[in-house]
Amino acid sequence: MNKQGQLNLIKEDFIQCQKVLVAIGDETRQAILFVLMGTDCHTGLRVGEITEQTHLSRPAVSHHLKVLREAGVILMRKEGTKNFYYINVRSDLGRLRTLMLDIDQFMQNFYTNDGH
User: Fold this and answer.
1) What is the pTM (predicted TM-score) of this model?
2) Cα–Cα 20 to 30 A to 28, which of 11, 34, 51, 85?
3) CATH code for the domain in which residue 23 is found
4) Are 55 and 20 in contact (CB under 8 A)?
């Protein structure tokens, strides 16, 4: 594939990853993700448990969970009146890997060969 073709592919990768990049780009949401990664994949945590572990307010945690859910990074499971949040293992996070691989391939093809 030529240089412009690879650039177009990377541009499309960025478009496909935009929601996930925005969602995981925030330090507070990263802290929430670290907490969720430390739990059983399908058990998850309630807002109060996340609040305790991150030292954030309930409204702040709820807001950030909403952003992560809308981006498809996390899922919510209802159990009666309780909501449990957990990492979506089938999320678009895999697209980030594709984006990085495409960028790496571009760099290998067009920068290391040019002596830069």
Assistant:
1) 0.82
2) 11
3) 1.10.10.10
4) no
